[in-house]
Amino acid sequence: MKKALIIGLGNILKGDLGIGCYILEALTQEQLGESVHLAYLGDDPRYAAGLLYKVDFVIVVSAFNLGGPSGSIHYWSYEVLLQNATWIINENVSIRLLIDALARAEMAGGCPEELSFLWVESQVMEGFEISTAVRKAIWKAVRIIKKNLFERGFLHEGAMAISPIYRIELPGTVI
Known about the structure:
The protein is α/β, with parallel strands linked by helices. About 35% of the residues lie in helices and about 20% in strands. It has helices spanning about 20-25, 50, 80-85, 85-90, 95-105, 130-150, and strands at about 5-10, 35-40, 55-65, 75, 115-120.
């Protein structure tokens, strides 16, 4: 049976930088099936190699500032990540640790067949609150992830609808 993994990165105590957690939380409300697994690794993905071993498709979700407007989403292949690795590892320690974990999985012969990265441009960098733009990006990211899962045979067409009743409520925040 083919296996997909969605990895969320980020710290929920740092505002928009916790977007990986919020996207995974939104995905728990969706019908993903038994072959799709979710893993929130926070700011420390160094042990991701064990999760990645013999997985067919992986999407890593995190906040990352590439200079675009907050809430915009960038979808990268593994090749694009490697092309920009020198710059990225100096900008984001979590991504450096993830690249190390990917190298370990590759050395063990268990690197995923397909690996993608979904970066969300952030705005709020401290506290529990997330910006309105990033809150809206959560649902865009869920759609992108579900579309990719569907295209690779992990979801059936009926699972493509987004659950309309889910709301993310943060402490002290009125939505």
